[in-house]
Design goal:
Layout: H1 4-15, H2 19-26, H3 30-37, H4 40-77, H5 83-105
Helix pairs in contact: 1-2, 1-4, 4-5
């Protein structure tokens, strides 16, 4: 079982740009962080935390997917939209349809 400081360090690893910033944010030395990163229990907990964070990010993207998918259609339908923008919007829609169709076949 991880201690409070190790749990705080995992949170810092998820939120900071690099190991040095994570160690500083967690209030530990780089030497301590490097030692903890070698512990299997710490590695498992860190991997699980990263997996959970990734799943949450994917869920947020899925929530916004419908709005993102309709945006090119709205741009294309808007009066006064330049032809080049309409072409790019249509290209986006067609590319997304093709990629979606490909994904379903595999």
């Amino acid at each position: 079982m991880l201690g409070r400081k190790q749990e705080e360090t995992i949170a810092a690893l998820l939120s900071q740009r690099n190991l040095e910033e994570a160690a500083k944010a967690a209030g530990i030395s780089m030497r301590t962080l490097m030692r903890w990163l070698k512990l299997s229990e710490f590695q498992v907990a860190y991997r699980e935390a990263r997996r959970a964070a990734y799943s949450q990010a994917v869920a947020k993207l899925q929530q916004g997917a419908t709005a993102a998918a309709t945006t090119p259609l709205k741009v294309d339908a808007r009066p006064g939209t330049p032809a080049s923008v309409k072409v790019r919007a249509a290209e986006c829609v067609i590319t997304s349809l093709i990629e979606g169709h490909r994904d379903r076949r595999h």
